[in-house]
């Protein structure tokens, strides 16, 4: 059991290294270019936000100047009107500060929302491009049965994958792959799961081409995700951290 698990770990490391090399070799440059373009858009948005903040500050100073003038004029009013003038001054001050604060907050919200939107757009573009390139690579350079072999190896290592999953009250177990697999492989997966998970749960095999490559296994509400999108998302997050975006 120990030697098999070690082989699986080594195989996973080699697969990840190969995937990282493919990404670096074929489209890391495109990813960095897209990130740079998005960064420029973000910087432009931040400059626009700073401009709006400056306008808000100018408006606040203008209101303060108006208030100072109002105080000078109020000093000339007879004593009976002093209380009314002071109340008006306080109202105007509070309103001016409230408006300035709203403008500043709104500018920050616009800048934050624009940055998030640009990053999410870039992420979708990168993931779509990566998915296309990797899937094309698998089609051209790997045998047809390669994907079923990977799924079969995963089925044999299910013991460690679901060791910590609570099997109480499981009603349904669903295995999702991008393409249909052989009936023998389906039976192998189901037999392995039933040996590990007690109960009269329902086994469902589903096909979802949007996964691209890999598979997903739902055990009740618990998800084991070995899909291409999941691994690309992890790589994308690593790139974001390295690029500090």
Condensed summary:
The protein has 245 residues and is α+β, with helices and mostly antiparallel strands. The protein has helices spanning 2-26, 28-74, 82-141, 146-156, 158-161, 183-196, 228-243, and strands at residues 172-177, 202-207, 216-219, 222-225.
Descriptive account of the structure:
The chain is of the alpha+beta class. The protein has 7 helices and 4 strands. The chain has a 4-stranded mixed beta sheet, with no helix packed on it. Helix 2 packs antiparallel against helix 3 and helix 4 (146-156) runs parallel beside helix 6 (183-196). The longest helix is centred in the middle third of the chain and has 60 residues, at 82-141. The chain is elongated and about 100 Å long. The model has no long low-confidence stretch (mean pLDDT 77).
Radius of gyration (Å): 30 Å
Helical stretch tally? 7
Residues in helix, %:
over 70%
- Any low-confidence stretches, pLDDT <50, length ≥5? none
What global shape is seen? Answer: elongated
Q: β content, as a range?
A: 5-15%
Biggest sheet, spatial arrangement of strands: 2-1-3-4
> Structural class of the secondary structure composition?
alpha+beta
How would you state the average pLDDT, rounded? 77
Major beta-sheet overview: 4 strands, mixed
Give helix and strand order, one letter per element, not per position.
HHHHHEHEEEH
Q: Termini distance?
A: 43 Å
The number of distinct β-strands equals: 4
